[in-house]
Design a protein that fits this description.
This protein has about 450 residues and is α/β, with parallel strands linked by helices. The protein has helices spanning about 5-15, 115, 125-130, 145-150, 170-180, 190-195, 205-215, 220-230, 275-290, 360, 380-390, 405-410, 415-420; strands spanning about 100-105, 130-135, 155-160, 165, 180-185, 240, 245-250, 250-255, 265-270. It has three domains: about 55-195 and about 260-290, 3-Layer(aba) Sandwich (Rossmann fold); about 205-250, no CATH class; about 310-425, no CATH class. The protein has 13 helices and nine strands. It has a five-stranded parallel beta sheet with strand order 2-1-3-5-9, sandwiched between helices. It has a two-stranded antiparallel sheet with strand order 4-8. A two-stranded antiparallel ribbon has the order 6-7. A hairpin with a 2-residue loop joins strand 6 and strand 7. Helix 7 (about 205-215) crosses helix 8. The longest helix is centred in the middle third of the chain and has 17 residues, at about 275-290. The model is unreliable at about 15-80 (pLDDT under 50). The structure holds iron/sulfur cluster (3 copies). One iron/sulfur cluster binds near residues 110, 111 and 113. One iron/sulfur cluster binds next to loops.
Length: about 450
């Protein structure tokens, strides 16, 4: 029995055993209004290389060469290499005297939300147009792979790449843009940590099991295959010999990767999608560099984060109540000012990097961890397991609560791996599920 068969069988069993529908809880009160917490001031760190000046005193964006860089998690990147939310000020006047930079925006395995988030810059999008020629942005502009391939190495000033690396085309484009760009930014959670596409790594049989399921077992595909292809179901192949010649499509990978697992990344910006405040920080840094010759931030800088966990910027009061039951948000009449964990709702705040201003918890929803692991934590999921375990009642406090009781509570967590690694499986030590005795 494959992964999907087991999954859906489990769901069917649950459906059969489900009690009568519960009365709907009142919507959570969201009296706490959102106000971004001021991020701590960044330590003054010198950029490894200042932007050289072109004629006329302006920086020459084409002469700036980024040396090989470390990944954001590497030891040589200062922990406080952060940028606070930027006040962009008035619109900048037209094109920079040193010449427009070249900008590429690309999506790999992505949902499109990251591309759309660039529009959250509102009228600032005009500044992007003023300071940059957009050489590629598949969702919004023309620009073909062959055009990029024909460019000089390093000719593109900045490439913003969103999405995970899911197939051979994603990897090819990431490598091509790296080769042609001076600066590459991992834009959004999927690029940084694998995001939701990396949950495909939980299918032990990898790409083949997914393709088999999608093309032969879902009700619509099963009916279609039975009707049209009888005993020989058709599944996409990477190569097909047509009368006109060979047709190829990208190869789906067994293991979804993060951007920095296939190329060097200069900067990263978390969020699903990144927030307007974070995008403004990125824009400000690029604007300062292009128009005023201000050195870019240190390589490896993560844009828009704080150095603390999300809990520390969440306004909800923590009472560290013991967890005796785990609930979904819709099952609880959520109190507006008390920690969600204290109300029995799993919230990834203790294991998540701060910087978003606790948007979800302020709105009565638990944090799902889209900013990735908090400082000093590599494994967001494991860290969250520890946080939850520390809140279980223990025998000393409650003689009726032994190991069996704790296992019972734990077993009510639906899909623990998927919940605790919802965004970061691609970057975790676990990386993927494997078949017993398999690779
Ligand atoms: S990070 Fe979120 S918004 Fe961006 S591509 Fe991934 S799923 Fe979409
Ligand atoms: S666990 Fe969640 S709700 Fe509780 S303080 Fe932390 S971020 Fe806020
Ligand atoms: S609260 Fe958590 S899930 Fe929501 S935006 Fe912030 S980091 Fe992401």
């Amino acid at each position: 029995m494959g992964f999907f068969d087991k999954l859906f069988k489990k769901k069917e069993e649950k459906k059969e055993a489900a009690p009568a529908e519960k009365p709907k809880a009142e919507p959570a009160s969201t009296s706490a209004s959102f106000k971004a917490e001021p991020a701590p001031a960044p330590a003054k760190t010198e950029a490894p290389k200042a932007a050289p000046k072109a004629e006329g005193g302006n920086p020459d964006p084409y002469a700036f060469i980024v040396p090989p860089v470390a990944s954001p998690g590497d030891a040589d990147v200062p922990k406080d290499a952060i940028l606070p939310a930027a006040d962009l000020g008035p619109l900048l006047p037209g094109a920079p005297a040193g010449g427009k930079i070249k900008l590429a925006v690309y999506w790999t395995a992505a949902c499109g939300g990251c591309d759309v988030s660039l529009l959250d810059t509102h009228e600032r999008i005009l500044t992007i147009g003023d300071m940059a020629d957009i050489v590629m942005w598949p969702v919004a502009a023309d620009g073909k792979e062959k055009d990029i391939a024909a460019m000089e190495d390093g000719e593109i000033t900045v490439s913003l790449i969103n999405g995970a690396i899911r197939n051979s085309e994603n990897e090819h484009m990431a490598k091509l843009l790296r080769q042609k760009s001076k600066i590459v930014v991992a834009y959004g959670t999927c690029a940084m940590f694998g995001g939701s596409p990396a949950l495909a790594n939980l299918v032990p049989g990898g790409a083949q099991e997914i393709l088999d399921y999608v093309y032969t077992k879902t009700p619509s595909s099963a009916n279609f295959q039975a009707e049209y292809h009888k005993d020989a179901p058709v599944i996409p192949q990477t190569s097909y010999q047509a009368p006109e010649g060979e047709l190829t499509i990208p190869t789906l990978y067994d293991t979804v990767k993060t951007l920095d697992q296939v190329i060097d990344v200069d900067y990263s910006i978390p969020g699903c999608p990144p927030l307007p405040e974070s995008i403004s920080q990125l824009l400000k840094a690029v604007e300062d560099f292009v128009y005023n010759g201000v050195p870019l931030p240190p390589k490896g800088t993560e844009i828009g984060i704080t150095t603390k966990t999300l809990c520390e910027e969440c306004p909800r009061k923590k009472e560290n109540a013991r967890i005796t039951e785990i609930k979904e948000p819709h099952e609880v009449d959520v109190k507006p000012d008390i920690c969600l964990m204290d109300q029995g709702i799993l919230c990834l705040g203790p294991a998540t990097m701060g910087g978003c201003g606790a948007r979800c918890t302020r709105a009565g929803q638990p944090c799902r961890g889209c900013y990735g692991p908090s400082p000093d934590v590599q494994e967001q999921g494991a860290s969250m397991f520890t946080a939850v375990a520390s809140l279980f009642p223990v025998l000393d406090e409650d003689p009726t609560c032994g190991e069996d009781e704790i296992i019972k509570i734990m077993s009510t967590i639906k899909d623990p791996l998927g919940y605790f690694y919802a965004y970061t499986l691609g970057k975790s030590l676990i990386r993927r599920a494997v078949k017993e005795g398999g690779q």
